[in-house]
Input
Amino acid sequence: MASKEEELLVPLDDFLKAGIHIGTKYKTKYMEPFIYKARPDGLLVLNVQEVNNRLNLLINFLSPYKPEDIIVVCRRENGWHAVNKFSEVTGIRAYNGRYPPGMLTNMNLEIFVEAKLVLVVDPWIDKNVVRDAAKIGIPVVALCDTNNDSLNVDLCVPCNNKGKKSLGLIFYILARDYMKNMKKEFDGKIEDFVEE
Output
């Protein structure tokens, strides 16, 4: 077990305390391979090793991109603090709340932005940006819970995408490792990304 834990991005206890592995009572066919078991109360439990592996993939996927080429979209209020902190630390643009229609597709709008990669906190709630990105061929990375679908998602990261602690831990890991790969200073703590 020690060798497995050494490969994790953070200690196993941090993953478990944040509830990163706790899913919903519902599952989609796409998310089945990431599910470890169902608890007696019906909640599905994600495989922590798979969560860790996919987070590693995401870090490697993000690394070649400059901050100005990435946008993060989060309509779910529980993720706003973590996303804002991530944006502050990395310089990656964040859009919380309702995604402005046409922001990626209509060059005539004042709010138009160019991006080469989109990261969404929930592909169901953030489906409009996922759809727009697919229309123009921008890769989409999504944090997916057990009830999410993979339509128009290029890379799925299985996790609890509803909890403040879980999202705080995810964006802490992403910020830390993105900055490390950019060879820039990072002195943040998990607590900085979790809103009480």
